[in-house]
Design goal:
Chain lengths: ~230, ~475
């Protein structure tokens, strides 16, 4: 089942001197439970494309449709609500709320969606256990390693059972061991929960584990390979 | 959860938040104390004006208020008093004779207003009897008709406030643990009579250095004070025909209110004794002073009395003591000015702190927007942070201010250096701060309003962030 469709998506940045075609006529779609990596050199448009898929940025032209909803048709407030319910985010520098514990960080998304407390608790414990942090639920981010923080971020991204998770260079700040652990956890969760993961990455370890690799160059899709 | 995050965010940068909280606390303590002192002064001035000087309402002959002549007495005093008695708002009244006179002693003279009163009735209306200074004799009584009650200021002018170092002075200074060397020097002034505070201070200055005077000068002056109680004072005034007449009275007591202007002129004698002086069979009534149960009824009672008291002039305390009335009316304006200035300063501090906090957390705010925290929640979070930050200081400030005011309300603050100046304009040298519940509620509302208003700019600034750009910041 298609959960995400991009049709002739363009993003052009108009600066005073030059026009930058960051994403150039991209058309593709993603199925449920995909584990896809968007790769390409710096400046190839990976992050811009990810931002548009996540509804953080709007295409100059073209359409992005998530489960039948055209993002450009949504008002700003509707878009925020749509992101909350349908998209999970994992950032390169973890971006946890430093004043909250691991448990509270994961719970936060569900609180925003006004889940009942019991359901929130169960889901939080389930996710933190799944990412191997069942014993660190009351730790604050400052007391955790980078790898552990990123695992909390993954748990947070999955908390509200989104349609897909967007991960922008999730392993860029991690050492090799932490990166491998994180990727294995994400792959396992992808397999178990059937939630689609879309990464932008330079990391060959991510590419190696991905089931589909999309290569961008100068904003264009040059290859889109599905691996078995 | 937004509230919990906001509270935790307040403590992210403990030092900065504590600086703001301490500033808010100190600002509010300063505000509470300033207003407490102003309110205390106003209340003391008002109390002094009403219970020592003018009462709530006074009735005089219309012409008397323009020209204070002996024959311009209250018209139809019996009917007027009958009318007064018929009003339920009135708690008491007293008739007085009031003459302009000259007071003489062998050493000085001064112009005074002499009040002829019934001592017992007067006690029900004025509190002068409570203002007798220590070692200053007693209030008038109806059994000693030849007595005169004068003020500390009048005693000073008439040189009845004298100073003499006696054995008793030395003994009391020893009890106060004044060093032997100081006492030994003071003993050289023993049994010399100084007829004014100035002369005694000058003598002390010649004997002691500044440090000793700063430490013991006031105590020595206090212990050497010797009011000439039972001394004769000659009063000269006009009789009913306008001829000068003289009488001798003996000082029975010395009073001191917080208004030197009043003290300087007001002396009190028995009304029957005064009548003997100006001649005639009846006691003249120049003034009827009235006390009410409720000060707020003054205007209404004045209207009622004006309608029934013919040629007489009926005036309320507001007309009789306009300075006290002005002070009372403007108190609310003082509140707004003082608290307004303090709140303005607080608002700038709070806005600055919150803008810095937002600048530091740009990336985090970008993340919150990205993951789906809507504008309303972000606005609420920043607003709550600002309110928590302000209220943390406000709660400490209000309670500390209350505790300090309550303590000072019992002991009072003595402005010893400026006491004479304050008393010259009718304010007490020792002020007892008064802070009412209404003021605390008002201050709390003002602080909350300041916090809310101060939070709007930082919160709007946060809302204007673009999540993509915010996430890119380092």
């Amino acid at each position: 089942m298609k959960i995400l469709e991009l049709k002739n998506v363009n993003k052009i940045y108009n600066s005073t001197e030059v026009k930058v075609h960051a994403v150039n006529d991209v058309t593709m779609d993603f199925e449920e439970a995909e584990f896809a990596a968007i790769v390409g050199p710096s400046g190839s448009g990976k992050t811009t494309l990810l931002n548009m898929i996540g509804g953080l940025d709007m295409p100059t032209s073209g359409e992005i449709t998530i489960c039948g909803t055209n993002l450009s048709k949504l008002k700003s407030s509707q878009l925020i609500d749509f992101r909350l319910k349908n998209i999970g985010f994992v950032f390169q520098s973890y971006n946890l709320i430093p004043v909250l514990t691991a448990k509270e960080n994961v719970e936060f998304i569900m609180t925003l969606q006004q889940w009942p407390e019991k359901k929130r608790n169960e889901r939080t414990i389930e996710l933190l256990t799944a990412v191997g942090l069942g014993d660190r639920i009351n730790s604050r981010p400052a007391k955790m390693s980078g790898g552990q923080q990123q695992r909390v971020a993954v748990a947070r991204a999955l908390a509200s059972r989104p349609k897909f998770v967007l991960a922008d260079e999730p392993t860029a700040n991690l050492d090799s061991k932490s990166a491998t652990t994180l990727l294995e956890i994400m792959e396992k969760l992808n397999h178990e929960s059937k939630i689609t993961f879309i990464f932008s990455t330079h990391d060959p370890r991510v590419v190696k584990m991905a089931h589909r690799v999309i290569t961008l160059e100068d904003g264009k899709v040059v290859t889109d390979v599905k691996l078995e | 959860m937004i509230g919990s995050i906001a509270w935790k965010n307040v403590w992210r940068n403990k030092k900065r938040s504590l600086v703001v909280i301490v500033a808010v606390t100190l600002g509010i303590i300063a505000g509470v104390l300033l207003i407490g002192i102003m309110e205390g002064w106003t209340k003391q001035r008002l109390h002094n004006a009403i219970y020592n000087e003018v009462s709530h309402i006074q009735i005089h002959n219309n012409e008397y208020i323009k020209n204070e002549e002996i024959n311009l007495t209250v018209s139809n005093p019996d009917e007027t008093i009958h009318s007064i008695d018929s009003l339920k708002e009135i708690s008491g009244w007293v008739k007085r004779t009031k003459l302009i006179a000259m007071a003489n002693t062998p050493w000085a003279n001064t112009g005074v207003i002499i009040y002829g009163v019934d001592a017992e009735k007067e006690k029900r209306i004025t509190e002068i009897y409570r203002e007798i200074v220590p070692e200053g004799g007693r209030y008038l009584d109806n059994q000693s008709p030849g007595d005169i009650l004068i003020s500390d200021k009048t005693a000073e002018i008439l040189k009845l406030k004298q100073y003499m170092v006696t054995d008793s002075t030395i003994e009391s200074l020893k009890r106060e643990k004044v060093p032997g060397s100081v006492i030994a020097k003071l003993e050289t002034l023993k049994d010399t009579r100084f007829r004014s505070p100035k002369d005694f201070r000058e003598a002390l200055r010649q004997k002691f250095n500044k440090k000793t005077l700063d430490r013991y000068g006031l105590l020595m002056t206090d212990k050497a004070l010797d009011y000439r109680i039972r001394n004769k004072v000659q009063i000269t005034c006009s009789d009913k025909e306008g001829n000068p007449v003289q009488g001798i009275f003996r000082v029975c007591g010395i009073y001191k209110t917080t208004n030197t202007g009043f003290d300087q002129v007001a002396v009190f004698v028995n009304d029957k004794e005064l009548a003997k002086l100006y001649g005639g069979n009846e006691i003249l009534t120049h003034e009827i002073a009235i006390l009410l149960d409720d000060i707020d009824d003054a205007g209404m009672v004045r209207e009622k009395l004006s309608r029934i008291s013919g040629d007489n002039s009926v005036r309320t305390w507001k007309e009789l003591a306009p300075d006290a009335a002005l002070l009372n009316d403007f108190m609310i304006l003082y509140y707004f000015i003082f608290i307004g200035i303090i709140m303005l300063a607080l608002a700038f501090g709070i806005i600055n702190t919150m803008l810095m906090a937002i600048l530091e957390r740009t990336k985090e705010l970008g993340m919150l927007m990205a993951i789906g925290m809507n504008r309303k929640r972000i606005f609420t979070m920043i607003m709550l942070e600002t309110i928590f930050l302000t209220m943390a200081g406000a709660v400490v400030g209000i309670f500390s201010g209350w505790a300090i005011s309550a303590a000072l309300g019992k002991t009072g603050i003595h402005f010893s250096g400026w006491g004479e100046g304050f008393e010259a304009i009718g304010f007490a040298a020792r002020v007892y701060p008064v802070v009412t519940l209404e003021f605390f509620v008002f201050t709390a509302i003002m602080v909350i309003a300041t916090a809310i208003i101060s939070s709007i700019w930082p919160a709007r600034k946060a809302l204007k962030l673009n999540p993509v750009e915010a996430l890119r910041t380092e």
